[in-house]
Amino acid sequence: MTTKQTLMLAGWLAVASLIAGCASAPETGRKQLLLVDSAQEAQMGYKAFEQIKRETPISRDRGEWQRLKKVGDRIAESVQLPQARWEFVLFEDKQPNAFALPGGKVGVYTGILPITKDDAGLAAVIGHEIAHVSARHGAERTSQGMLVQVGGTALSALLGDQSGLTRALAMQAYQTGAEVGVLLPYSRTQELEADRIGLMYMARAGYDPREAIAFWKRFQAYNAKSGGTQVEFMSTHPLDDTRIAALEQSLPKAIAEYERARNRP
């Protein structure tokens, strides 16, 4: 690709990003950069989930499966995702983790169940993961990566006459700046946004949102016991204290939603 073509592509993506910036995240209204088609994104989610099911052992605990489906279905009913083909799978894995993929595919690892403790704790986890999907955080990260890649290509073209060392140093500085200054902060923003949206989802499904804070405190204790340390500046996830404080700020609105859900006939 010539320098002129590269700069033209960078300009096109800049215009596209302004247009895509009109998209807004649910609940929060945060403006988003979305350059990925939602239907294509969902198809990628379906395909990836089928591969995960082939490669990861699935739990045979019938009781926990039923609990996952019950809680998952209730959360899904509170979410407006008309294209979703909901599926909740319990994977046999000691990791305290869970995930959701575009198209409504949700996986929960058995390792997180002792920390979720009960239905409300599980609802906090599922609500958070589904919030990533409804807010299209995966597509947003992909879009950001596209812009960073094109920016790097454009920079490389502009540095064409410079020495090899100068080019290498400039590209390294660009990549580090993009990672630390753009991609990591956006990932932390998305995590906190998923916490906030997920809190509303679980409340509307009839689960006490105060239990989300209780869950994250248990997770914080697990991290401390496991010797895990986080440096927020270089992490894709916010520190436990940060997310707990943010959840506490969102709690009054979520409690109001919870009370409305409880009073529905």
How would you sum up this structure, described in words?
The chain is mostly helical and 265 residues long. Helix 5 crosses helix 8.
Largest β-sheet summary: 3 strands, mixed
- Rounded mean pLDDT is 78
- Arrangement of strands in the largest sheet: 3-5-4
Instruction: Count all strands and give the number.
Output: 5
Helix content: 55-70%
Category by helix and strand content: mainly alpha
Q: Provide the gyration radius in Å.
A: 21 Å
Task: For the record, give the distance between the C-alpha atoms at the N and C termini, rounded to a whole number.
Answer: 63 Å
SSE ordering = HEEHHEEEHHHHHH
Features:
7% strand
Quick structural gist:
By secondary structure, the chain is mostly helical. The protein is built from nine helices and five strands; from the N terminus they run αββααβββαααααα. Helices cover 66% and strands 7% of the residues.
Layout of SSEs?
Blueprint: H1 3-20, E1 23-24, E2 31-32, H2 38-55, H3 62-77, E3 87-91, E4 98-101, E5 105-109, H4 113-116, H5 119-134, H6 137-158, H7 164-204, H8 210-225, H9 240-263
Parallel strand pairs: 3-5
Antiparallel strand pairs: 1-2, 4-5
